Amino acid sequence: MTEKTNTKNIVQKIWDAHVVKQMEGHPCVFAIDLMLLHEVTSAQAFQLIESRNIQVFDPSRLLATIDHSTPTRQNRWEIYDEAARTQVETLRNNCKKHNIPFLDFDSGKQGIVHVVGPELGVTQPGMTIVCGDSHTSTHGAFGALAFGVGTSEVAHVMATGCLLQKQPQSMKVEFKGRFRKGVYAKDAILKLIGEIGVGGANGHVIEYVGEAVRAMSMEERMTVCNMSIECGARAGLIAPDETTFNYLKGRAHAPGAEKWDEAVAYWKSFASDENAQYDKVVTIDLDKLEPIVTWGTNPAQSVSLGERIPKLETMAANEKAVAVRALEYTKLKEQQVLEGTPVEWAFVGSCTNGRIEDLRIVADILKGRKVNPGVTMYVVPGSEAVMKRCQEEGLDEIFRAAGADFRMPGCSMCLAMNDDQVPPGKRCISSSNRNFVGRQGPDSITHLASPATVAASAIAGCITSPAEYV
Question: Is residue 256 situated within a structural domain?
Answer without folding.
Answer: no
